[in-house]
Amino acid sequence: MKRFKTLTAIVLASFMAFQMVGCGGSADQTTDENASAEESADVENSEDKLVWATNAEFEPYEYRDGGEIVGIDAEIADEIASRLGLEAEVADMNFDSIIPAVTSGKADIGIAGMTVTEDRLQNVNFSTPYINAGQAIIVPEDSDITGEDDLVGLTIGVQLGTTGDLYVTDNIADTTVERYTKGFEAVQALLQGKIDAVVIDGEPAKAFVKLNEGIKMCDDYLTVEEYAIAVSKDNEELLDQINSALADMEEDGTLTAIFDKYLGDGEDTDEAADSDEAAEETTAE
Amino acid sequence: MFQTLQDKLYLNFIKDDRYMYLVNGFITTIKIALLAILVGLIFGFIIAIIRSAYDMNKDQQRNTISAKLLSLANAICQLYLTILRGTPVVLQLLIIYFVIFADINVNKTFAAICAFGFNSAAYVAEIVRGGIMSIDRGQLEAGRSIGFSYAKTMLYIILPQAVKNVLPALGNEFIVLIKETSVAGYIAIEDLTKGGDIIRSRTYDAFFPLIAAGLIYLAVVLILSKGITIFERRLRASER
Q1: Which of A19, A90, B89, B232 is 20 to 30 A distant from A250 in Cα terms?
Q2: Which positions in chain B have a beta carbon within 8 angstroms of at least one beta carbon in chain A?
Q3: How many interchain CB pairs under 8 A, A with B?
Q4: Looking at this predicted complex, what is its ipTM?
């Protein structure tokens, strides 16, 4: 009996050691290009699918409407997939898991209203940017905060791993940064008076302010940034395909049509329909 | 290979003082866990005593006011156990922070201690009740017959023996509780798990931050179980 236990222990220990080695390998893929290239090729060939990673809590870029994930990024993903002759499959995850998912080959691309930054470029390649965006400040309606300078020393809610999180952490002095897993939880904490302000991307900020009484957006944006599609560094071919698909979509007006549909610039009827849908969605949640 | 390892370690822990996320997270985790264990023990013992008092006395069928009160208290405790053990602790945490404390501006750590403490109390209660019920009824009768009140019998005769019996199970519950606090990040508390997550969100490297956080949890649990073993051995000294 005792011998059996020892044997089991040895087997388990060696299994764990083996797994650790496996993990170490995937954590620094760049040194092991052959293996990972094989892996990602495997994923694509066997499935004929384009798996796109996102965090579907980011209206109007990606959000859930009756169980379906819709929004600007969703339509772009579907359009790119169909232009590449693949079937789009969404993988909804926490925002901070998207880049690891792309680098480890669990997803082919990441489309999540993701800003191009230096740090991110060290881990993934980005397509040509498809839209400009910025970080907005949401505050209570009666607040005196008007811009970046007023944020010093306050408690600020952000979504973990977003550009807003990185910017506030690095650039604003003496703040207490509260990092929520979801953007709407930060907004909820703001509504309950638990924090002083929320820093989040401009378009979702507009959606939050529209849906909730008692909060407003500051006029000044904190940053100007560009959203792009994240692709694994081991898959230059896919990056080229996506860039040419994006260029085509730009040229034939598909991109503009998608933006008009969700951002509702000018067209009142569209916007009204959108806000109705959005309102329904929140009550459902 | 060695160079990349060194680079990764630098990137994940040294650059921008990132290890401080783990250090501060560790302190927060320990703070929440210890205070939650305390809350759990206090409320757990109270509930266990009420429930076992009811169990021990119910066959006597007395129609006095105190018997009625006891039966009411027992019913309330049972409802508490059903709800707290029947729902996930993450939901309880979110409910305490976003619903119960919705309009009150409380410290998040306090909300977490309440959530984990009251959740743990439900489990501690049943463990301790099991310990009390495991003591032979003759002990209670002996205590009463030499003139101790019910409360004194409980305090001086039953509970000391019961605690000794349930110590391994209680230790188990503490270990579970320490690891359960890893969901505190749901209300933006920066505990150990969240600390690892924050580093991960900066470096996009999953391996080192998560393994480092895991090793710290492991070390804490090892120290705790060692402490419980020593405590147990001390209590057993009287048996020889």
Answers
A1: A90
A2: 1, 4, 8, 98, 102-103, 105, 185-186, 188, 190, 194, 197-198, 200-208, 211
A3: 60
A4: 0.73
